[in-house]
Structures are given as C-alpha cells and as structure tokens.
Amino acid sequence: MSRGKIALIVAGAAVIGLLAWRTIQHRPQRGGADADAAVPVTVVPVQRRDVPVYLDALGTVQALNTVTVRPQVGGQLQSLGFREGQEVRRGDQIAQIDPRSYQAALDQAQAKQKQDEAQLVAARSTLRRYQDLIRQHFVAAQDLENQRQTVRQLEATVAADAANVDSARVQFGYTRVIAPIDGLAGIRQVDVGNVVQPSDANGIVVLTQVRPISVIFTLPEQDLDLVRGGGGSDAALPVTAQNRADNRPIASGVLKVIDNQIDSATGTFKLKAEFPNADGKLWPGQFVNVRLRVSTVQGGLVVPAQAVQRGPDGSYVYLLQADSTVLMQPVQVGGEAGDDALLITSGLKAGGRVVTEGQFRLKPGAKVLALAPGQTPPPARIEAAQGRRRGRGG
Predict the structure, then answer these.
(1) Which helix (H) or strand (E) holds 270?
(2) Sheet architecture: strand order including 176-178
(3) CATH number for the segment(s) 36-50+299-388
(4) pLDDT digits over 271-309, tens only?
(5) Total-model pTM
(6) Contact 79/192 with Cβ under 8 angstroms?
(7) Parallel, antiparallel, or unpaired for β 238-242 and 249-258?
C-alpha cells in the first residue's frame, strides 16, 4: 500500500473521530437531575362549597307607577302647588282651578234642596190632618190618597236634590287637583292663567313613583322552569342590579312577576323585579345589568377560573397526579361561582389539585414541581432550568 493511500485513510479516521466526539458532547445527558427537571407550576385544591346559581340579563328601569295628572273639570288655572322635580305625596295639592262657577252651582243645588224639603214638610203635615179627618168623614178617601202620592213625589224630589248637591260638591272639589300617588313631579305641561279641560292630552304634570321602583328584563324560554322552580318557596327570588360595566352592584331587590306568556317572535319571557330604591340610584329609563339568583348548589366543586382551559374538544384542566406528573382532565363547567371561580359539574373530585399557573409549558404526562399560590421555586431549580435552556441553545 502506497504512502498516499495510508495518509488518506488516517485523515479520514481523524475526521470521523472528531465528528463523533462533537456528537457525544452535544447529546442530552440521560439520568441525573437535568433529565428529571420538573416544570414549576402553581396548583390549588378543588374546593367543595355552596354555590349560588345566577341568570344574567339586561334590564330597563321603570317607574312603579306613572300618572298623568289631568283636571277633571274645566276652568282657568289659578295656581300650581308643586315645583318641577319636587317629590310630592299622595293628597298634596297639585293645582287650583277657578272654583267660582262650581261654588255657585253647589249653592244653587243646596237652595233647591232646602226648597223641596220645605214643601215636603208641608205635605206631610197636610197628610197627617187628612188622616185625622178621614175618621170623621170630613175628607174623601181619594183626597187622602192624592196627598199620600204628593208626599211620595216630594220625598223623591228631595232625594234627587241631595244627589244633585253631592254631584255639585264633587265638581267643586275637583277644582283642587290632588296628587293621586307618591312620586316625582316632572316638567309642567301648562302655565298658570291658561284654561284647562279634562280632554287635554298632556295634562298638567306627570308623576312617577320611584320608591320603590321596578326593573323589567327578559330571559330565554329555556330558563323558565329554572326560574319557576326557584320561586317554589314563599321567599321571593333575590335580584341584584349591576352598573353598566357589570362589576359593581348598585341595588338589591326581589322578583315580583313572571309574565304569563312567552314571546314567540324572540323566544323570551319578561320578568319584573322590584327595588326599594331608598337612595335613588335607579332612575326610570336607565339600563342596568340584572343578576337573578335562582338556586344554590349545595356542596358544589369549585376551581379558580384560570385553571380551566378551552380546547377543540371542550374545557379541561391539568390535574396533578401522585407521581408529580399532570393529566389533561376534561371537565364540565356549570357556571360562575363568584368573581374568579367556576362551578365544575363533572370531571373532578374534591381534594384533587389543579394547575392554575404555568399551563402553557405543560403537556400530558409532564413532570412538574407543585407550588402553592405565591410560592417561588428553589434557586437550584431555577439555575438548572436556565442551564438546560443554554445547553439546548448551543
């Protein structure tokens, strides 16, 4: 064999050896702490507690009662007894209509009644004399009967006069326009000095009752049984009105009415809740978010909301196993259980521990270092993880 061939063989062997050495240097080391390094994650136990079940909807605030105050008799408006925006009480005087013509009609009816009453007294006196004289045959029986009929006619006339007096008194009373409900006075619709009539469409003022106040909202028809079942006890279902951002309650009340039919066009049904509104935070026409509590799940399973992930096959959590690995566990979510928790209806058991932080680094079967909320991994674990990332980067 020539020296050239021997040199080529030696050079090839050297190159192969160098490549093999570099491969061995960069091969991941098996065994030891680096191979078994666990991913630090935060885990919390599955809790069991009573969970209220809510239905959410958008509602419209509506005055408990709204009345357009109209005069019941016509006449010139002499004065107004309220200020715009003032809270009035039932029975307060709203306005005064010129009463003079109605006072005259009342006086006339009373005078007519007195006149007829005097005639009735005279007729009764005559009837008594006829009854005494009939026994002495000084009066004909027909005259006695005629006098009896006269008394009856005058009695009916006096009764009609009394009714006329009552009617005139009522008409006179209508010249004082009285508030029929407690409520807030709106903007007045007519000024003093104008002639008002019962047929006026706008009336004098609109009163709205805001203490208490109502909220009207709708729910899908599939929630009807849940709402009706929740109201099976004597206690009314509690309702909370939230602000527009739906992050703060502004009033608490109770459900009063479930409408007696479902809207076939929208597939929803109406409900009315009533709120005391003592602080006046609810105002007619206002939009609020409504939370209706329909039931309470006794001993429900609850996990933090951040523990539940969404995948193509539905919701799941990473469940910690006894060997410090994680299992991708499918779960069924039953609704919210507070501001940052969810009710789990299937897939978990009380006491199991689920991952709430660090899920993005996990896959099924991954080994983890379980930490309590707020706990940090030991420095050695951090340095090992950093060294492993540098080695993979080389």
Answers:
(1) strand 268-275
(2) 176-178, 93-97, 75-80, 195-196
(3) 2.40.420.20
(4) 999 999 999 999 999 999 999 998 888 899 999 999 999
(5) 0.66
(6) yes
(7) antiparallel
CATH classification for the domain delimited by 65-196, as one of 2.40.50.100, 3.90.780.10, 3.30.470.20, 3.90.180.10: 2.40.50.100
- pLDDT tens for residues 47-105? 998 888 888 999 999 999 999 999 999 999 999 999 999 999 999 999 999 999 999 99
CB contact at 8 A, 164 and 110 = no
**What phi, psi does 327 have (nearest 5°)?**
-120, 130
Give me the amino acid identity at 33.
Answer: A
Domain ranges of the chain: 36-50+299-388, 54-64+211-294, 65-196
**Helical residues (DSSP H) of the chain, grouped into ranges:** 3-26, 32-35, 100-134, 141-173, 224-230, 379-393
Instruction: For domain 54-64+211-294, say whether CATH 2.40.30.170 is its number.
Output: yes
d(CA 221, CA 149): 71
Token couple for 62: 């509506």
Residue carrying structure tokens 């978990």: 348
Length of the chain: 394
- Distance, CA of 223 to CA of 254 (rounded, Å): 17
Q: How far apart are CA 109 and CA 96, in angstroms?
A: 22
Distance, in Å, from the CA atom of 179 to the CA atom of 94, rounded to the nearest integer, reads: 6
